[in-house]
Amino acid sequence: MAANAIDQTRRMLSLVTYLRERPGAHVADVARAFGITEDELISDLDVLPMCGTSFRGGDLLDIDTDGDRIWWHNPDDVAAPLRLAADEATALLVAARAVATLPGLRESDREALLRATAKLEAAAGEAAGASSRLSVTFESEGGVFAEVDRAISERKRLWLRYYSPARDELTEREVDPIRLFAVGHTYMEAWCRLSEARRTFRLDRVAEIRILDDHAAPPEIELRDLSEGLVQPSAEDPEVVVEVGPGGRWVAEYYPHDRAEELPDGGLRITLRTPAPASLRRLALRLGSDGRIVAPQELADSAREAAAAALAAYEG
């Protein structure tokens, strides 16, 4: 089972200490020591150079690899004790208090976070004063994330009420969670007991969630490579043609497509493939006057009928 987001964060924190003590470490040796694949390690190494000791972007970790060995070029530059400015201490304290209120957070993690927050307050002194006047409230997705993360950690099955935009309905199902990941939105990949297949669930579409007593036992399946995005159309998927005006050019940025041809009015004629063409009806409704489905004809007709029905409902 893939590591969840919190496990990855813990691993990367340990990785910094590990690499500092082993200059020029071999990629294969480090991956084996952490129990991950070399590709997962390289992915972590791509993130580490964006981390450092300042929220302002200074003192970043200068870590790179040639594919065989890993080099940390400035370990001494970031080894000095951390000194937080007032705004940095405030941001950390507000974030820590907010995370500590998440529903579903493991009690041991909550207690550890509160202890760390208390130490940070003591170290920050007067700089911590402003943080007591600020608070952050997470949207419901934060609670769903915490429940999923806990279920993955404890290998428990989940019960969901989930909104399916393609069918415009709420369904109830039990799932065995596999991993959390983010591609624009935050998703859970899980084995769905309703469909007996792997499914991906967007967390902000989970209307209700509950951890069950049943042990989660997803089948051994190969995890999808998400480096090219969540939606990766196949050459066998049906082809759809959408024409958009200047206000709809964003479609070419958000939807993988085969080609995008310029139109005289500044719009685009976009050709894409999707395993579920009917799901693009909602795109057509969202575009309104900024776009339309051109082909296949039955999908274009269906989109027009959906638009007419929506207008009729408003008039009613």
How would you characterize this protein structure?
This protein is α+β, with helices and mostly antiparallel strands. Helix content is 36%, strand content 24%. It contains nine helices and eleven strands. It has helices at 5-20, 27-34, 38-47, 86-100, 107-124, 140-154, 250-254, 281-287, 297-315; strands at 63-65, 70-72, 156-164, 169-183, 185-192, 197-202, 206-215, 239-244, 259-262, 268-273, 291-295. The strands form three sheets. A five-stranded antiparallel β-sheet has the order 6-5-4-3-7, covered by helices on one side. Helix 2 (27-34) crosses helix 3, helix 4 (86-100) runs antiparallel to helix 5 (107-124) and helix 8 (281-287) packs across helix 9 (297-315). It is globular and about 65 Å long. Mean pLDDT is 77; it is low at 136-140.
In summary, what is this structure?
This protein has 316 residues and is α+β, with helices and mostly antiparallel strands.
List keywords for this structure.
9 helices, four-stranded antiparallel beta sheet, five-stranded antiparallel beta sheet, 316 residues, 36% helix
Order of helices and strands: HHHEEHHHEEEEEEHEEHEH
- What separation lies between the terminal Cα atoms? 51 Å
Low-confidence stretches: 136-140
The total of beta strands comes to: 11
Q: Choose one word for the global shape.
A: globular
Nearest-integer average pLDDT = 77
Oligomer: single chain
Assign the structural class, choosing from mainly alpha, mainly beta, alpha/beta, alpha+beta, or little secondary structure.
Answer: alpha+beta
The amount of helix comes to: 25-40%
Q: Major beta sheet, specifics?
A: 5 strands, antiparallel
Strand order of the largest sheet: 6-5-4-3-7
Our Rg estimate from Cα atoms comes to 24 Å
Strand content: 15-25%
Helical segment tally? 9
